[in-house]
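for the recovery benchmark. tokens below, seq after
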């Protein structure tokens, strides 16, 4: 729990990277080959799945579709020693060479391409508006919009209001909330890493509006329509 709290705090700020970790690492876990690619821009690929990572001292944090996990690591010669997190035993990874990756590169690239989603595809402003009018008077209104930028940043704004009247009485409330941070996406999920330190993963579906065919981003069943003109999916 302590590692997870520290990891969330670090992911909320600019990534801290260890240059000597950059590269491709190979190993074996539970009898299966494991392939880890760490890039200089804090992105990476773990067995064909997109990840983000950061380091602080001997702490390695990896963000994937399965959530955020923290490990302790040590470089020893040409090996990367990793333990903790979801590992039941220490894991040794070897830095890849041209010979060791022969025959594996194409398969890994194909798997990553199949699962990855181009951020530019989802970039834009997306909104969900709901309203309700009560027969006895009053009603409710909510507007939720988020902006996905192609550079991996997002911003979120929500406004809600409610009022009721009758019998000479009136009452009303309104509230606003917002958030911002980093986002990543695969073909079936979006992961939001808030600047506040919270990480959330949402089920993603791409649909077109049944009436006007405008593209929509549906997160956990709630569908947000494009704010600007875009072609259908």
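predicted aa per position
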């Amino acid at each position: 729990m302590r590692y997870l709290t520290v990891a969330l705090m670090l992911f909320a700020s600019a990534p801290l990277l260890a240059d000597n970790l950059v590269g491709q690492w190979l190993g074996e876990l539970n009898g299966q080959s494991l392939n880890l690619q760490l890039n200089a821009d804090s992105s990476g690929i773990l067995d064909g799945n997109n990840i983000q990572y950061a380091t602080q001292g001997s702490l390695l944090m990896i963000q994937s579709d399965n959530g955020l996990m923290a490990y302790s690591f040590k470089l020893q010669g040409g090996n990367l020693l990793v333990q903790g997190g979801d590992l039941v035993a220490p894991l040794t990874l070897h830095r890849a060479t041209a010979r060791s990756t022969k025959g594996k590169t194409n398969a890994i690239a194909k798997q990553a391409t199949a699962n990855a989603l181009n951020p530019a595809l989802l970039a834009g402003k997306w909104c969900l508006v709901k309203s309700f009018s009560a027969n006895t008077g009053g009603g409710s209104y909510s507007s939720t919009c988020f902006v996905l930028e192609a550079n991996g940043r997002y911003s979120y704004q929500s406004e809600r209001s409610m009022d009721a009247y009758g019998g000479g009485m009136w009452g009303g409330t309104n509230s606003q909330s917002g958030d911002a941070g980093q986002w990543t996406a695969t073909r079936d999920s979006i992961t939001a890493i808030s600047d506040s330190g919270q990480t959330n993963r949402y089920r993603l579906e791409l649909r077109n509006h049944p009436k006007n065919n405008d593209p929509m981003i549906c997160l956990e069943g709630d569908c947000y329509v494009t704010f600007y003109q875009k072609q259908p999916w």
